[in-house]
Specification:
This protein is of the alpha+beta class. It contains one helix and five strands; from the N terminus they run βββββα. A five-stranded antiparallel sheet has the order 4-3-2-1-5. A hairpin with a 5-residue loop joins β3 and β4. The longest helix has 13 residues.
């Protein structure tokens, strides 16, 4: 018997990709069918439908982290 495919769910502090914009960010909270997502290393925040979130690829995750490091403020410790 085959196992059912693993279902991905966004997790608190997990990285997500917003399908409609291509942005990658960190989940800072969610309520009902909306998630609050913050740009990696930034103060930009989005409220997004859970259906509009996907698991980022390794390349998308790395690209977002490199962008954050390149614009790093030494006072911030939450970028990586």
């Amino acid at each position: 018997m085959t196992e059912p495919p693993e279902v991905w769910e966004p997790k608190q502090r997990g990285l997500v990709k917003i399908k409609s914009t291509g942005e990658v960010g960190t989940v800072i909270g969610h309520l009902w069918n909306k998630a609050q997502v913050r740009a990696i290393g930034g103060e930009i925040r989005w409220e997004v439908d859970l259906d509009d979130l996907a698991q980022p690829t390794d390349a998308e995750r790395l690209s977002a982290q490199v962008r954050a490091v390149n614009s790093h403020d030494p006072k911030r410790s939450d970028i990586l």
